[in-house]
Design brief:
alpha/beta; Rossmann fold; Serine Threonine Protein Phosphatase 5, Tetratricopeptide repeat; DNA Cyclobutane Dipyrimidine Photolyase, subunit A, domain 3; 3 domains; five-stranded parallel β-sheet; 5 strands; about 40% helix; binds flavin-adenine dinucleotide
Length: about 450
């Protein structure tokens, strides 16, 4: 008699049933399946940069996404078990207590996540571990180079893959094997992660504007909201004008606003690409529609960049091994974080980020450049703050972009210094954005003491 195959599926940044190749593989191979999400975020476990792990908007988005996944799983007879704790300890205990034969997860660019995975594999040699690419447009085998040969800059990467076509999305799962009978009893002893907080908040109409004066996020987590946003976006003519407006500092309609759903895996990048192709066939293909693909390629590049460089993604001297003359100044850091620097445009951006967990790409570039250049701060503290508040936090895109701007990453041109006055004139000529986000309210000098420690 063949042994029953009992699987554990570890959801991470793939909180969806559509186009989920890892879950599909589990579905094909298993007799029974336990669907698990482990939350290691806790106000009591600060990151190495003394930042608590998650701001309120980020936590809410995640909880909404998990609650929606639970709903979608229960519609096909499964359920989601959400446990709190360190991923390695929790998964290890589950493996030991339930007779798991196979563990599945989606590919992850995170160095820490991969360390956990490797340690579990070593500890449980009799269990089969499966990792399947579902976060990206391509698999590494699709490229004409090995991961170790990933081109050193985005433009070289883009040219090298110009003849490669993204993978087509697969169909939505409508069936999964049942949960192992013993699971409920065994799991009763674990620390459950509460995903019910305010999950009832509705999805905001995408025709509203981030600048509507409402100082809370318009994003609502979950696969259902993400797919609705995808449909809504491509039903309009916005894709045809994307390139003209994408750089704006503000406004719901200017960029795609896919990133929070993408980062949590509520939306698949391949599904977005497929919707883009449909739009191009049915409506129009122009520079702007190409530019949506171009931006998705940035995300793709940073994923493979993080996979290649591992822990170097987080090192001060970056992949270039350069040591910037920057340091950590607690007062400057607090002023940047709280929107009370001498620079109104930076303050407005930081206030928006704090209130909503989101900031335009332009805003992110401005505040990161200010952090590195005007404040002379160690870029890693800025990246760690973004990690704690962004609802679209993605390990590869966040740390990769920060390295790039700090001049220690994938940019051949060295560090980027944005002129704050010019940026203000160009992107907020009427001061509307600064007024909305009260960038002028708490202007303060960067330091309250001079170089000799005398109060200013
Ligand atoms: C310092 C800094 C930190 C960042 N941190 C993150 C992060 O943690 N998570 C994240 O998803 N993006 C990050 N970005 C990239 C970018 O700012 C956001 O992806 C974008 O603003 C999200 O808005 P959107 O979905 O409307 O994207 P659009 O501008 O419409 O772009 C479409 C999609 O392309 C991808 N994309 C666009 N620009 C980039 C880029 N520079 N790098 C990687 N992917 C990109 C995103 O998936 C995005 O959803 C960061 C950028 C900077 C400068």
């Amino acid at each position: 008699m063949t042994q029953k195959r009992i699987g554990l599926f570890c959801f991470t940044n793939d909180l969806r049933l559509h186009d989920n190749p890892a879950l599909m593989r589990a579905n094909l191979l298993l007799d029974e399946l336990l669907c698990l999400y482990v939350s290691s975020s806790s106000a009591n476990s600060p990151s190495p940069y003394s930042m608590t792990n998650a701001g309120p908007s980020k936590t809410l988005f995640l909880q909404q996404s998990l609650a929606n996944l639970e709903q979608n799983l229960s519609a096909i007879g499964q359920r989601l078990v959400c446990l709190q704790g360190q991923a390695n300890e929790v998964i290890n205990s589950v493996l030991e207590k339930i007779g798991i034969t196979d563990v599945f997860r989606s590919d992850n660019a995170g160095w820490y996540e991969n360390q956990v995975w490797r340690a579990l594999q070593q500890k449980h040699p009799a269990i089969r571990f499966h990792t399947i690419a579902s976060h990206t447009l391509f698999e590494i085998e699709d490229f004409p180079f090995a991961l170790s040969e990933l081109p050193p800059s985005f433009s070289k990467f883009k040219n090298a893959i110009k003849d490669c076509l993204p993978i087509k999305p697969i169909s939505t799962l409508s069936y999964l094997p049942p949960q192992p009978a013993a699971a409920s009893e065994v799991l009763a002893a674990f620390n459950v992660f509460d995903m019910t907080l305010d999950s009832s908040r509705g999805y905001s109409d995408s025709s509203s504007n981030l600048s509507s004066g409402k100082k809370e996020s318009l994003f609502s987590g979950g696969e259902t909201a993400g797919l609705r946003h995808l449909t809504d976006y491509f039903e309009t003519s916005k894709p045809s004008h994307y390139k003209e407006v994408r750089n704006a500092i503000d406004g719901w309609d200017n960029s795609c606003k896919f990133s929070p759903w993408l980062a949590n895996g509520c939306l698949s990048a391949r599904e977005i690409y497929s919707a883009l192709l449909d739009y191009e066939h049915e409506r129009e293909a122009n520079d702007s529609t190409y530019w949506i693909y171009f931006e998705l390629l940035w995300r793709e590049y940073f994923h493979w960049y993080a996979s290649k460089h591992g822990a170097t993604l987080f090192s001060f001297s970056g992949i270039k091994g350069l040591s910037p003359l920057n340091s950590f100044y607690p007062e400057r850091f607090q002023k940047w974080r709280n929107g009370s620097t001498p620079y109104p445009i930076v303050n407005a951006c930081m206030n928006e980020l704090k209130a909503t967990g989101f900031l335009s790409n332009r805003g992110r570039q401005i505040v990161a450049s200010c952090f590195i250049n005007e404040l002379s701060m160690d870029w890693r503290y800025g990246a760690a703050y973004f990690e704690s508040v962004l609802i679209d936090y993605d390990v590869a895109s966040n740390w990769g972009n920060w390295q790039y701007l700090a001049g220690v990453g994938a940019d051949t041109r060295g560090k980027r210094h944005f002129n704050l006055e010019k940026q203000t004139q160009q992107f907020d000529p009427n001061g509307r954005y600064i007024e909305l986000w009260q960038g002028n309210q708490d202007l303060a000098p960067l330091d309250s003491v001079d170089a000799a420690d005398w109060p200013i």
